[in-house]
């Protein structure tokens, strides 16, 4: 019989794999060419690749720590290794294989997410003399990470400059564009096409803000106004699936979580509450289904909580970070931008 079935015996076109992690799926019967294609895209499920979230840095003694969790389960964090320098109020972004951390003094470190060990020097942030890279947030798709929400050097004013890094290639950051408003202490998240930055503190207004901006990650240029958060937020965290972005915490008395539909500009909607009201300097990471928020400052906390991104409701206790403290940065190998 000469008839060929290029899509497999069950379906002519098997569905896209759900991701390069241990409990990912690729239902159907595949040809070797099809499997090789998805391997090259970094989406074919590989045994041993877990839904791993990283939390790095912090405001506590020994704040160069990197720790990891398995997002699909619950439990306490495990030591991963150390950053090259002790830093708080930093940002992070990641592909399915590599995580980048950028903080004060403009240094970027990276690690390979599937392994453990100390970070390696990647390059420097975009070399604009005024930028301090403090109070920033990172987000990314599979290839490019965006850094936004800067403080001017010396901490005198917030800044609107956005820069980017090509995650697979070491080197210095490059100018991307500008936010609609200068601010720091922001939170970010992403879909595979769009990066979103929300909230933060404006020194020009001397207050926190609720504005949300977005940009197309693959295209250089200024950000565009998206909508508003339900409240003003600063020192908070963002995470996402491919379709929905979450923003949570920020401040000693705030446990609010907001959500947006990333592809559709508009105002944020109340999602639910975190498990504690002590959420200043909280960090977050996510898989395609679950968001995990952890740590805080003043008083210091090591508590992590999680939500199911596609639903709404209050967070549930996940486990504990290794140290109590805030101003970490979080990322993962299975977030919504991949």
Mean pLDDT: 89
Q: What are the low-pLDDT stretches, counting only 5+ consecutive residues below 50? A: 1-9
CATH class: Mainly Beta
Number of helices: 1
Would you kindly provide a written description of the structure presented here, covering whatever features stand out?
- This protein is an all-beta fold and 338 residues long.
- The protein has a single domain, classed as Kelch-type beta propeller (Neuraminidase, 6 Propeller), CATH 2.120.10.
- The chain is built from one helix and 27 strands.
- Strands 14, 15, 16, 17 and 18 form a five-stranded antiparallel sheet that branches. A four-stranded antiparallel sheet has the order 3-2-1-27, with no helix packed on it. A four-stranded antiparallel sheet has the order 4-5-6-7, with no helix packed on it.
- The N terminus is likely disordered.
Short descriptors:
338 residues, mainly beta, five-stranded antiparallel beta sheet, four-stranded antiparallel beta sheet, 1 helix, 27 strands, 3% helix
């Amino acid at each position: 019989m000469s008839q060929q079935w290029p899509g497999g015996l069950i379906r002519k076109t098997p569905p896209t794999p759900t991701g390069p992690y241990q409990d990912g799926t690729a239902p159907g019967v595949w040809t070797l060419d099809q499997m090789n294609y998805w391997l090259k895209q970094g989406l074919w499920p590989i045994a041993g690749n877990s839904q791993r979230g990283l939390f790095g840095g912090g405001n506590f003694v020994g704040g160069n720590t990197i720790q990891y969790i398995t997002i699909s389960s619950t439990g306490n964090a495990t030591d991963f290794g150390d950053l090259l320098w002790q830093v708080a109020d930093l940002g992070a972004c990641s592909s399915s294989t590599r995580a980048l951390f950028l903080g004060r003094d403009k240094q970027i470190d990276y690690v390979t997410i599937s392994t453990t060990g100390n970070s390696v020097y990647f390059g420097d942030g975009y070399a604009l003399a005024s930028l301090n890279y403090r109070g920033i947030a990172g987000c990314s798709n599979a290839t490019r990470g965006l850094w936004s929400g800067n403080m001017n050097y010396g901490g005198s004013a917030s800044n609107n400059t956005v820069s980017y890094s090509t995650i697979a290639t070491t080197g210095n950051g490059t100018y991307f564009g500008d936010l609609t408003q200068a601010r720091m202490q922001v939170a970010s998240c992403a879909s595979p096409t769009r990066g979103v930055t929300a909230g933060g503190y404006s020194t020009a207004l001397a207050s926190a803000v609720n504005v949300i901006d977005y940009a197309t990650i693959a295209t250089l240029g200024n950000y565009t106004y998206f909508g508003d958060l339900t409240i003003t937020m600063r020192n908070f965290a963002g995470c996402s699936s491919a379709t929905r972005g979450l923003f949570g915490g920020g401040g000693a008395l705030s446990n609010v979580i907001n959500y947006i539909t990333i592809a559709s500009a508009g105002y944020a909607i109340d999602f639910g509450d975190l498990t504690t009201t002590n959420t200043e300097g909280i960090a977050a990471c996510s898989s395609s289904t679950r968001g995990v928020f952890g740590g805080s400052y003043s008083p210091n906390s090591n508590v992590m909580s999680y939500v199911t991104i596609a639903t709404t409701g209050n967070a549930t206790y996940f486990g504990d970070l290794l140290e109590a403290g805030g101003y970490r940065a979080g990322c993962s190998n299975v977030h919504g931008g991949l």
